[in-house]
Amino acid sequence: MRNGQRVTVVSGVCVAVVSAVGFGAYALIGGDDAEDTAGNVAATSDELPGEEEPAVETGPPTAEEVVATAGDFLDAWAAGDAAAAAALTDAPRDAEAALTALAEDGGFGELVLEPGTPGGEKVPFSVSAAVAHEDQQGELAYDSALTVVRDATTGDPVVDWSPAVLHPDLAEGQSIVTGPVSEVPPVKVLDKNGDVIDADTYPSLAPVLTELAERYGEQAGGSAGAATRIVDGEGETVASLLEIAEPSPGVVPTTIDPVIQRAAEEAVAETSRGSVVAIQPSTGAIQAVANKPADGFNGALEGSWAPGSTFKIVTASLLIDRGLASSDASHPCPKHFEYGGWRFQNLDEFEIENGTFADSFARSCNTAFISQAPELDDADLGDQARDVFGLGLAWQVGVTTMDGTVPTQSDAQMAASLIGQGGVRMNPLTMASVSATVQNGGFKQPYLVPPDFDGRQLAQASGSLSADTAQQLRSLMNRTAVNGTAAAAMAGLSGDVGAKTGSAEVDGQEKPNAWFTGYRNDLAVAAVVPDSGHGGEFAGPVVADVLRAGS
Question: Are 185 and 175 in contact (CB under 8 A)?
Fold first, then answer.
């Protein structure tokens, strides 16, 4: 060694191999002392003077080159050396990225690659791969092929790279992944009896079933399974290559009563468009949810409409609690009443002379309620709705819901809120809960998934109905069901019954939204039929049919 250079003696001549940036250099030295021969050094970048640059090899690779190149590529790939394997292709960057992704995203572990008999430049080979996702493993076997070509720049034999080298069905822009068959494990949703609920039998529950699967899939005890797939750039499955583990469904219980749900589906199907909800007052368990159209917006649970006169149940409780009304006491019901610059009136401008509050409630007299606006503060109605009926609290139902809105308003808007107009917004779920609160004597937050399934804390109202107020409300609703505006719809229903009708005007809409809420024994139901007409005529039959299905 001299000056850190490697020295080799060839035929009596000492040759020192050195390097220079950007080219090769050779020093030819005569004699023993290299330091005295600087004048004898001849340098050249690529060739010696008079010599021609070596020609790049052309033409197809030889059979020996095909076998050697294919073997080296497969050996490097099997060894997990993506960089070395990619260097033997005509597209090293693309090949290395694809080979790396196959190991990482494809879950390819131990590989056995066996080359077959070449056919010209094409070499078939078999692939046997151990693939895995978390603790789930499988074996994938298939046949593929590669082609050896001569690189036009270097003349070296290389693998003609394409994604199909990795798998014959793999195209540009696609990749192989190993992972869950679905984003979340599948679930079986059960009714209150433990039987599986399916959307074919209960079409209205289709969106509910979908949400339950998304919400509870991870904690329902199921498995998403695992599979090796070819996917496109968006991650969508192009082809399934291997199912490593079959998905197994978890179980999500619900409070749906199949008899009541069937009745709800059939009842709402008779409307042009409508929604209905049934609740068990003693527990808050939701026993039916139905919409028409079944595959549209879930208005039964998420809708937001002015509830019209059905909301007079809440207002009546406030007036009774404040001593502004009593069931059997005389109460004004004039044709008109002005408040906040608005002139309010009753349907067809009727009035009740020398009537009681029960008379006004049964006939749905608007002015009987609005006439008490001067005695109330702007926030009183919202406070009563929240603190006694639980409306507007954050309900934990188990699926997405709109839990009622009673904003604080003033002047004419506050007065309109007293009859379920203004800014008050409800849906069949919340209005069924209002009836359930009256029947039960206290608020029980509605739920579809039992709270002990996932440890949810149900909403609690900070106040409650007094025994006297609860009894008066039940008397008012019974009177309405027996010989008031709800009598026609409730005819023939025995037991402990109560009801209230509503017709909510909507700007720009030809007909009002029909509302009806009521209870029979331990079942409370509410329905809305938008843009239809009076509540007793259009929403009443829906509620009555569902109540009839209860015990």
Answer: no
Task: Tell me the per-residue pLDDT of 290-335, one tens digit each, with 9 for 90 and over.
Answer: 999 998 899 999 999 999 999 999 999 999 999 999 999 999 999 9
Cα 278–chain centre separation: 25
- For the record, the structure tokens of 460 come out as 């609690």
Longest dimension (CA), the chain: 138
The secondary structure of 476-527 as a DSSP string is HHHHHHHHSTTHHHHTT--SSEEEEEEEE--TT-SSPEEEEEEEETTEEEEE
* Angle between the N-to-C axes of helices 312-321 and 380-389, in degrees from 0 to 180, rounded to the nearest 10: 100
Rounded Cα distance, 526 and 288, in Å: 11
Rounded Cα–Cα distance for residues 428 and 459 (Å) = 18
Query: How far apart are alpha carbons 367 and 483 in whole angstroms?
Result: 20
Question: If pLDDT is split at 50, 70 and 90, which confidence band does 135 have?
Answer: confident
Give the DSSP letter string of 196-238: BP-TTT-GGGHHHHHHHHHHHTTTTT-B--EEEEEE-TTS-EE
How do beta strands 23-29 and 13-20 pair? antiparallel
Q: What phi-psi label fits residue 379: left (phi over 0), alpha (psi between -120 and 50 degrees) or beta?
A: alpha
Residue 358, phi then psi, degrees to nearest 5: -65, -40
Q: What angle do CA 368, 371, 377 make, to 5 degrees?
A: 125
What DSSP state is assigned to residue 185?
Answer: -
Candidate from 9-13, 423-427, 492-496, 501-505 with smallest mean pLDDT: 9-13
309 closest CA partner among 461, 434, 132, 204: 434
Residue 389, both tokens? 């009926």
Q: What is the pTM (predicted TM-score) of this model?
A: 0.79
pLDDT of residue 277: 98
Question: How many residues are given for the chain?
Answer: 551
